[in-house]
Design a protein that fits this description.
Length: 238
């Protein structure tokens, strides 16, 4: 089935005439007719609009094979969506118009797969839903602080390894492994003991995640003061 035939199939499924579809997309009936006859290929923005209107992915509309769909990072997805669509449209144009350039089509399909892979790379900032901390003890002998991070998604099958990374003003770092309470899925905590008051004074706090053996780190805040009653920090995550 060609791109034009797929557009026609989904248009009729929604009970739309060519003119009705054109009105929703801001194009003429003649333009829709050309698309469905494979006499022209929709622009990138129209392809995206068609996929949204039809309730299908861009891959399904263009029938370009790619990796299994995951929840892509919104920031990265936005950055590469236009590139993916443009390359995929070129593939559809060559295939839909019956142009025999197998090598070129294969190369374009590889570009689509590569771009989709980039879009599905997790953005560390979007792995975090919330975070916080609590000073449990503070004295001249040291302090104990509990840090907490809530992940944006929790999957018991592919549970993330989560840790906190603390780097002080002297660039000394400490990695604090977290634990997750069974009654609070997706909420991870770690207690950090600072015996000589050197670590938790001026420091940067980050949340780290390990997925498929790869570490992703999201800076959370830069602290410039931390006591039992007072704290001063600059948020780095939003």
């Amino acid at each position: 089935m060609t791109l034009g035939q797929r557009i026609q199939t989904h248009r009729t499924r929604l009970g739309l005439s060519q003119e009705g579809l054109g009105e929703k997309l801001g194009v003429s009936r003649q333009a829709v007719s050309k698309w469905e006859a494979d006499g022209a290929v929709p622009d990138t923005d129209k392809l995206i609009a068609l996929s949204k209107l039809f309730g299908i992915s861009l891959n399904e509309l263009l029938q370009v094979e790619g990796p299994a769909a995951k929840a892509p990072s919104r920031r990265r997805a936005r950055a590469v969506l236009a590139l993916t669509a443009a390359v995929a449209a070129a593939v559809a144009a060559l295939a839909g118009l019956g142009i025999r350039q197998e090598g070129r089509i294969a190369a374009l399909e590889e570009q689509v797969a590569a771009l989709q892979s980039q879009a599905e790379e997790p953005d560390p900032a979007e792995l975090v839903a919330d975070w916080g901390y609590q000073v449990l003890s503070f004295s001249s002998a040291g302090r104990t602080v509990e840090f907490q991070v809530t992940t944006a998604r929790y999957d018991p099958v592919e549970e993330l390894e989560v840790f906190f990374l603390i780097v002080n003003g002297q660039q000394e770092s400490r990695r604090a492994e977290t634990v997750m309470a069974p009654e609070a899925p997706g909420v991870y905590t770690a207690r950090v003991v600072d015996e000589d008051l050197s670590l938790l004074s001026d420091f940067t706090l980050s949340a780290g995640f390990v997925r498929d053996g790869v570490e992703y780190v999201c800076p959370l805040a830069e602290f410039s003061g931390l006591t039992d009653r007072y704290s001063s920090y600059t948020p780095l995550w939003s």
